[in-house]
């Protein structure tokens, strides 16, 4: 039986540039040719696989700025993150290691595996902020952090010179005017600059993060910088600006209209960042990376993952396969679509390589440098396995095959096998037809899992028997 979905190449949406978010053509402060390259990493929240224009899968999405960035470089049609929810995915991204190596299987929760466990990214593990800071870069973190509550886990204590944002799964987009009041009851969802609560301010949160990013570039344009911008759009709460909602009044589904409007606003702020890089003639000395932290959750935020199966929180494609694009003008040829499987772990080795920072064996990084593939020095990445393990599910894939376990805790787990290179919608389970592939992938997953730490925290009382007063809960 043939798969019901035949993969088609992803093209580029052609969209007119909307005022306020287009590329600027003015120039000033040209950068020295010898300066190490900058990195701008844009990591968005709960954006579905079909929810960016450059994916060319939906007509209702308007993202001209990211479409131009993507067209300027490479779109990875098989781009993955290491987790299907926010916290673990971010832990893998910032460390360049599978987060299961240090017990980060799920979003931080109130219950812990052992009495001595403290919720937060293991302090012995370095972040990309540390690596670039150690190499003399100025490092900035503007947006959402989703880590331990104690400030020793916050970005400004984990390798980032500057942190502006919040430390929580979500925040009110209209918190302006009551940030200080909010901090008295919900400190974790209030906006901080490093340790300090920001005084009340005016504005929509995505716009505020975009403006802060522009200010960071203005202040650090004359020396190499690493700017990480984890927008919380388009994660709930679903709050869009009235002016943006008006642009999409033709969309009848109110939840989808909010999602599209919030994503549009995020793209406008991507345009602000790119405009500023253009203004300072930094585009040919800056790698821009864009991806989502996990798949969308349509019932919650109106996102769309089609043609992928399922949603955020699962290890089917809809939970872990995301829009992913990289541009590096003058260094990476434009108008490329690469179908090789790639993963968020590849970002750290790639950015270290362009910065001339030697990757050391003791760092135990688990991704690969994508530059040889993006520049055409090699026409295919070496074959490898990619792995997923959450508090309840698992999966593994290679170039052609993917094995999914929807529930790892039952006595006799079900194994689903897909020819993922042909059937990205996972519509045809081939486990009974190819038992040898099932066994091969099971064996490889078990080998990988031997080096992981058990999940440190969660919500299940049986698996996490202890509490430690996290956020006042007992």
From TrEMBL:
Gene3D superfamilies: 3.30.1120.10, Alkaline Phosphatase, subunit A. GO terms for molecular function: arylsulfatase activity; metal ion binding. InterPro entries: Alkaline_phosphatase_core_sf, Sulfatase, Sulfatase_CS, Sulfatase_N. Keywords: Calcium, Hydrolase, Metal-binding. Residues 37-357 form the Sulfatase N-terminal domain. It comes from the Bacteria. The keyword Calcium applies. The keyword Hydrolase applies. Belongs to the sulfatase family. This is N-acetylgalactosamine-6-sulfatase. It comes from Vibrio inusitatus NBRC 102082.
């Amino acid at each position: 039986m043939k798969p019901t979905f035949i993969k088609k190449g992803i093209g580029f949406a052609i969209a007119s540039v909307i005022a306020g978010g287009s590329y600027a053509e003015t120039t000033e402060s040209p950068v020295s040719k010898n300066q190490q390259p900058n990195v701008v990493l844009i990591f968005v929240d709960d954006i579905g696989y079909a929810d960016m224009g450059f994916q060319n899968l939906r007509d209702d999405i308007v993202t001209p700025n990211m479409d131009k960035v993507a067209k300027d470089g490479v779109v990875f049609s098989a781009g993955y993150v290491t987790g299907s929810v926010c916290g673990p995915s971010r832990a893998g991204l910032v460390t360049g290691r599978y987060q299961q190596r240090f017990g980060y299987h799920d979003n931080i929760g109130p219950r812990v595996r052992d009495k001595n466990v403290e919720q937060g990214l293991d302090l012995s593990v370095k972040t990309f902020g540390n690596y670039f800071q150690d190499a003399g870069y100025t490092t900035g973190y503007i947006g959402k952090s989703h880590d331990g509550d104690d400030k020793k886990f916050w970005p400004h204590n984990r390798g980032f010179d500057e942190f502006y944002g919040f430390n929580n799964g979500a925040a009110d987009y209209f918190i302006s005017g009551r940030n200080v009041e909010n901090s008295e009851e919900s400190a974790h969802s209030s906006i901080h600059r490093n340790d300090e609560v920001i005084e009340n301010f005016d504005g929509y949160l995505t716009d505020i993060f975009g403006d802060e990013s522009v200010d960071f570039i203005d202040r650090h344009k004359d020396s190499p910088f690493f700017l990480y911008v984890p927008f919380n759009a388009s994660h709930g709460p679903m709050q869009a600006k009235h002016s943006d909602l008006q642009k999409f009044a033709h969309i009848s589904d109110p939840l989808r209209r909010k999602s599209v409007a919030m994503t549009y606003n995020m793209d406008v702020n991507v345009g602000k960042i790119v405009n500023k890089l253009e203004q300072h003639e930094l585009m040919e000395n800056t790698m821009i990376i864009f991806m989502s932290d996990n798949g969308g959750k349509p019932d919650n935020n109106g996102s769309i993952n089609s043609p992928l199966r399922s949603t955020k929180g699962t290890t089917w494609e809809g939970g872990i396969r995301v829009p992913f694009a990289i541009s590096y003008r003058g260094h990476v040829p434009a108008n490329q679509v690469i179908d090789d499987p790639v993963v968020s772990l590849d970002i750290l080795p790639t950015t270290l390589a362009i910065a001339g920072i030697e990757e050391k064996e003791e760092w135990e990084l688990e991704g690969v440098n994508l530059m040889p593939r993006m520049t055409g020095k090699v026409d295919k990445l070496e074959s490898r396995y990619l792995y997923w393990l959450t508090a309840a599910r698992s999966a593994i894939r290679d170039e052609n095959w993917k094995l999914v376990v929807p529930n790892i805790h039952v006595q006799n787990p079900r194994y689903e096998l897909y020819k993922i290179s042909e059937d990205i919608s996972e519509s045809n389970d081939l486990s009974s037809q190819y038992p040898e592939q099932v066994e091969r992938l099971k064996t490889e997953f078990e080998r990988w899992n031997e080096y992981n730490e058990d999940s440190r925290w969660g919500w299940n009382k049986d698996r996490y028997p202890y509490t430690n007063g996290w956020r006042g809960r007992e």
